[in-house]
């Protein structure tokens, strides 16, 4: 009996010792993972990210705080209340801006690879070392890599310049190209065109250039012999069409705004290989708020002048933004590098099909047509997936198309903002899923009104 | 005997169980601290931050990587080799730029409160919600708080605008102030002045203004009746003097460049209360690379125009930068809010004393004089602690002062860059400790040459 008891003690002991060894190993493993200075910030970030806001909003570490100092929920449109649980069924859906929030879920799915931890002493200097000045060479390398993966631009033998969004680079490019000549006329490729080209050129009112509208004005003026800078937006904002220059000749220079030239939004027939091309993080990864863009430039003089512009305008681009862009681009390039592109194209194709179906049921409106085209990135013919819907109000009385949609509780951008009268509107298809669902809901209501009206008209016969 | 054995088993058991309970508690505690998506990024950041580079350099998460994909050391000037252990005794020390690296150790000491963790989906939108557009209201609130702590500016009843460095805001301010009038002449307060005012105004060549030199030109021209925008840089860059406007009258508007109006660099006689004041994070926290500044503006029209400028130039300021600025300013405001100010003033006062002592030993050079003055922040009369030394070469033959220092292996900024001829140079006192030590070493060598030369001259008699 004593032997059995003794044996059971020993056994018990042994088990306990083994359990302890296991626990110690685990603790040691934990210890390896344990953090020092970044622990609190990381915990705080995760804590705030985990606030659910009823699935209808989001809390941010730099958001408004309540009396306890905790960030409060920022609700999606049509939702309210302290936890965004209150739905306002009567509200308007806003699809006016080009906010690329459709990519938010991708980054939530890739949270670990896209997180950035910035030390308090990170890159305090104005410049990167070794004569790199304002440009992170690692980021430049990764931008070239992404273009090689995306098959949308040839960067070999070209310079890369960073800017605070493509917005700044458009301005820098006009400035750099106009410096050779006494005077240049800046034109947009075709109507409809992105309003910034006009607004920016006119606002800064330099002595070197002025805005001349769309290029047809000069095309039809055979007497014009001045210097021209033509913006070629391809795919075009708003209508998504692939465009080429209208004007050519020794006095014409082109700025290719390729913000949307990613397989998210268009077939890529071939990599772009122009002398001055501008891209933005906003439409590649969806980080519009970061304000990061880059220009790919062939000519060394244009490159030098654009760098000078960036330097005198603001002494280079923020180091925090460059670090985040680097992290995000590395995450994009992971594995076969196709994950983001597949995700984006999948979401936008689905949305376009959904929208096309609704517009096929109405005679009141017309949706732009986009051809199915062979895409060298996907190595197949692909369906359309544009960033925006460009919709015409066909009824004679619907002169102000934006107003028609406003009444239907859909806030859109009028074609007036694209210098194309009032007959068209632009819907963004880049919104968060919630806003897209609301858009579809409101559109169905609008289209069903047409049926109800015709049913009423029929019944009155 | 059996009883004793049995008792010892039970005791042993009990101890083991207690140890286990302790360990389990500790594990549970660890579990609470355990991170999910931010863990890898935080570990990576800490790992890279811990690379020592022999104490003569630093590794960054966005730095060049070696063949194994690990970031390599970026060495301080005069150091080289893979771990920055090789000292080049013959090299020049560079104190030319205004890089505020003297504040780096402060952020290393405050690593936990200054760390920032950015989620992949953080602030992807162009705008903050609730009509805040491009401005983080939390950051704005904290900027007002810092000025209240620093007692250097009155923000009450004024608007705040963010920019990509004060650099962008200087440009935006000139633009906004010139829009009222047909034409404005932009002048700098006094010679010597910061070159950017001239370079920027001339580079952008708008139809609304041109650069007119320093204000004495207009002061002495009694016939001049045009509109004037005067930059008042106080404390002045390069010489650190507190300045007030030279020109006054109904046609004169002022832009107060208060980048250095912090108790780091000057006594604060009273909080500044001007209509248009510009500050920068670069000279407050030392984060020049972030490119973040703000303007404090009284007039709503000037505010609106400056906001329009920022919007058309680049659609607002990066969200990453705003988040980092918020974190850093919160860290500054911790406790009694005086920690950073004490640190900065302490370092710079020490440096100024060290430099003053060396220059007191030479007749060849002259250091600017800065009065001891009562400071409302420190609530006492304080010694000088300017950002820069402004040094005159007194010998007739030392016409090119920069060259004298270049030969002595000290790279400085010539007074030519401040439109003040070649007789003066600017040394930065804002460098990292290593560069400051090197500067003192080289200066001692230079001054000792003077003694050797006079000794030789004496011995030749």
Automatic annotation (TrEMBL), chains A, B:
Occurrences of domain Alliinase EGF-like (ranges): 36-91
Top-level division of the source organism's lineage: Eukaryota
Required co-factors: pyridoxal 5'-phosphate
Membrane spanning stretches: 6-24
GO molecular function per UniProt: carbon-sulfur lyase activity; transaminase activity
Keywords, alphabetical: Aminotransferase, Membrane, Pyridoxal phosphate, Transferase, Transmembrane, Transmembrane helix
Span of domain Alliinase C-terminal: 93-447
GO biological process: amino acid metabolic process
Pfam families linked: Alliinase_C, EGF_alliinase
Family classification: Belongs to the alliinase family.
The protein's name in its UniProt record: Alliin lyase
């Amino acid at each position: 009996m004593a032997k059995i008891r003794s044996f059971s003690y020993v056994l018990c002991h042994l088990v306990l010792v083994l359990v302890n060894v296991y626990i110690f190993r685990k603790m040691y493993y934990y210890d390896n993972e344990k953090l020092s200075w970044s622990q609190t910030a990381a915990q705080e970030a995760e804590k705030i990210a985990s606030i659910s806001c009823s699935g209808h909003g989001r809390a941010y570490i730099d958001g408004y705080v309540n009396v306890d100092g905790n960030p409060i929920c920022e609700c999606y449109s049509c939702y309210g209340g302290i936890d965004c649980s209150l739905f306002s069924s009567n509200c308007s859906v806003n699809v006016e801006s080009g906010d690329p929030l459709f990519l938010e879920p991708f980054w939530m799915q890739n949270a670990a690879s896209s997180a950035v931890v910035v030390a308090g002493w990170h890159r305090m200097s104005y410049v990167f070392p070794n004569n790199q000045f304002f440009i992170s060479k690692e980021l430049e390398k990764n931008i070239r890599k992404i273009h090689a993966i995306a098959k949308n631009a040839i960067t070999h033998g070209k310079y890369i310049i960073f800017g605070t969004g493509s917005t700044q680079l458009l301005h820098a490019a006009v400035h750099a190209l106009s410096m050779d000549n006494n005077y240049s006329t800046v034109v947009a490729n075709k109507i409809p065109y992105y309003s910034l080209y006009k607004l920016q050129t006119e606002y800064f009112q330099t002595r070197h250039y002025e805005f001349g509208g769309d290029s047809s004005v000069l095309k039809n003026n055979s007497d014009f012999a001045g210097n021209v800078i033509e913006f070629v937006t391809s795919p075009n904002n708003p209508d998504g069409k692939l465009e080429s220059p209208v004007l050519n000749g020794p006095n014409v220079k082109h700025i290719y705004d390729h913000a949307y030239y990613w397989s998210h939004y268009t077939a890529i027939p071939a990599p772009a290989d122009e002398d001055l091309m501008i891209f933005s993080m906003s439409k590649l990864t969806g980080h519009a708020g970061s304000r990061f863009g880059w220009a790919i430039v062939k000519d060394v003089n244009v490159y030098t002048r654009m760098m000078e512009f960036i330097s005198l305008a603001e002494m280079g681009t923020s180091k925090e933004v460059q670090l985040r862009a680097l992290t995000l681009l590395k995450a994009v390039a992971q594995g076969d590098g196709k994950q983001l592109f597949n995700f984006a194209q999948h979401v936008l194709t689905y949305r376009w099909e959904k929208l096309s179906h609704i517009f096929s049921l109405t005679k009141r409106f017309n949706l732009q047509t986009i051809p199915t085209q062979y895409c060298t990135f996907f190595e197949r013919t692909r369906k359309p997936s544009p960033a925006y819907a460009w919709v015409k109000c066909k009824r004679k009385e619907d002169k102000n198309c934006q107003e028609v949609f406003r009444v239907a509780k859909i806030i859109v951008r009028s074609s007036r903002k694209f210098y194309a009268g009032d007959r068209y509107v632009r819907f963004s298809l880049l919104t968060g899923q919630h806003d897209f669902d609301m858009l579809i809901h409101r559109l169905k209501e609008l289209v069903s009104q047409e049926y109800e009206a015709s049913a009423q008209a029929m019944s009155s016969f």
